[in-house]
Each structure stands twice: as C-alpha cells, then as structure tokens.
Amino acid sequence: MKQALISLFIIMIFMITACAPQTATPIPEPEIAPMIESTEIIPTHTISPTLAPLSAETEVVATETTIDLPVDYSAAVYLDDRSTPATMLYSLANAINRHEFIRAYAYWSTPFDYIGLLEAFTNNYANTSSVQLNIGEIHSENAVGTFYYSAPVIFTFTNSDAVVYRMSSCFLFRLPHPEDLGEPPIDLLHILKGGLNPVPVEINDDNALMGACNGTDYGTYAAGNPPESHNLESLTNLGPDNYIDNRSGAVEVVSSLFNAVNRKEYVRAFSYWQDATAVGSYADFAAGFADTELVTAVFGAVISDAGAGQYYYQVPVAQTVQTTSGTTQIFVGCYTLHLSNPGIQAVMPFEPLGITKGQFALVANDLDTMTLMERACK
Known about the structure:
about 20% helix, alpha+beta, globular, Nuclear Transport Factor 2, Chain: A, about 375 residues
C-alpha cells in the first residue's frame, strides 16, 4: 500500500531528482543555488476574502453579498487571475498598467476580432500611465457544458501627457465546464466578445455602465442569477466548493493545482505544468489521482531568483493527502516555477507562470513538517 501511494504522487509531481530550477524554454537560465530567502520579485495577492461559493451544479465561481473590497491592480503588483470575470478584469487592467500588452491581449479568445492586431493594441496604449476600472453588475448563465458571464465596464485611462479619457465595453466571458474536458489543451475563462468604445465626456460612469450592454444578445441577464462577486477568490480554501485559477505567484499557482485536483479537473491541473515532460503523459497524470479524495497544503517562504529576463521561484510545501480509502499521507517537498518576463514576451501565445519541477517525499504523519520545509528547497 505504501509503495502504491508513493507512486501515485510520483505521477503527480514528477519523476524528478532535484529541485533546481529550469525552464521549458530554450533561453539560458541561471542555476538556483541555495540562497537567502527573499520576497518574490513579482508582488502577489496572498491574502484574500473567503467567499461563499455556489454549488457546482449551478455555478463555478462564488457570489458575495458584502461590500466589494478594494483590489490593487496597479503596476506595483502582478495579477494574472482567471478565477472569476472580475479577477480577469483586474488582471487585464494590471497588464495594461504594467505595459505587458501581450498578456492583456491574451485574455481575449479571439483578440483580433475585437481589438485588432497585437502591434496596434500595443501602440494604442503605449502612452498609458495608469488605467482604472468601474465594473457594473456581472451576470451569469449556466448553459450546456459552459458558463457565460457578462459585465459592463468603464476604463479610465490616464496618459503620460496627463490626458484622461474613458472607454466602455460589455464583455461576454466564456468558461467551458473544466470537469468536462477529457484531455488537453485546457480552455480557460476568457473574453469571448467585447471591444473598447469611447465614452462621451458628457456621460457619467453610472449612465455609461447602464447603457454599455444595451443591444447585446448575451442572455445572461435573462437567466436571473444573482450578480457575481467583484472580490478576489479565497486562496485559503483549496476544496472543491471553491474555484482557483490564479497564476499571479508561486503559491497561487500551486494552490490552483491542488484546487483543480480536488475538483477532479485534471486537465486544468495538468495545465499548471509549464514542462509537461516532468509529469509524463496526461493519461498517466490523471490516473495518478484515482485514489485522491482531498489535498490540503501548508506553504513555506518562497525563494526567488532572476536573470536574463527570466524569473524563477521555489516554494516549499507540506501537502496532506486524504485518500478515497480513508488513509492520510503527508508529503513534503519543493516546487520550482518559471516565468519569462511578461514585458518582453513578444510572440503569442503568452506563457504564464508555470511549474517546471517538483521533488517530494512521503513522511511520517507525526514529524515536524515546518522543520522539513525549511530544508525542502535547499
């Protein structure tokens, strides 16, 4: 039994002999030798409100009745979050604020149809010093095999020459039911429809939001579901009643991986691996979780390094696995992640932060995992 359980997680994490970083891209990269722990190069949101999710049968993301909490999507942070339509909109604004235009462009499924060529999109917003969002009510519809969401949005742009102007849109988002995907590639939440249209100066934001979705045929309002939350998703709840698809930082990516496993969305779990060869074929990867009921995790301090436009992260993790037979195992180890600087990625598709390696060991349930995590990435 012990050997079988170890094999299960070897499929999950890896077939790896070391936790030294590497990337699936051919760009030369520095080796991450043992180093002093430091803060991440890319600031991330690691604390967020806990939401009250809907049941999986009616909705994949959460609704919230409390006042929306402020979200920082300024250029000072890095936000790449597809958990909800609201978090994707914050991520879109964040990408523009950071002048990471290929990342912003990648949030559309067919960007050329709505915002033109990448080069033109980049040129249009190259002089932007900041953008602010005003998001209206987000409505949803659960169609056959697919979730749809609509959101009226006002963008307020401030250029480097202090010129301020506004653009509006009625975005339609699409998310195929992740649990229904039988094999890669993953089809993530994306903007299906919606361009950017100028807002006349005499129209205020409230009126512009009210009229932004006039004339659309999205059908999301008619579905009658309560409006979706504007808040960030909870990162503390990895269970199947939550939905996390967040590539903003190392902890966020690994949390998303565990959440996908807990929701039996193995194609999504597989997608967090930037180097798929580290875990073998998708069929073997998915089969490795046949006896996994629930994964919970405790994370150690993230170690970061950078060089030649490449960012590398190592995150120690103690993961507790509850099996379908009722047993519990604890694995302690280290994930390595990589991100090519989004500001210099020039060719679609955009490559987000992803896992390249992992090394884990099964440990006795009564061991001090915090002490083990201190050595996991060294």
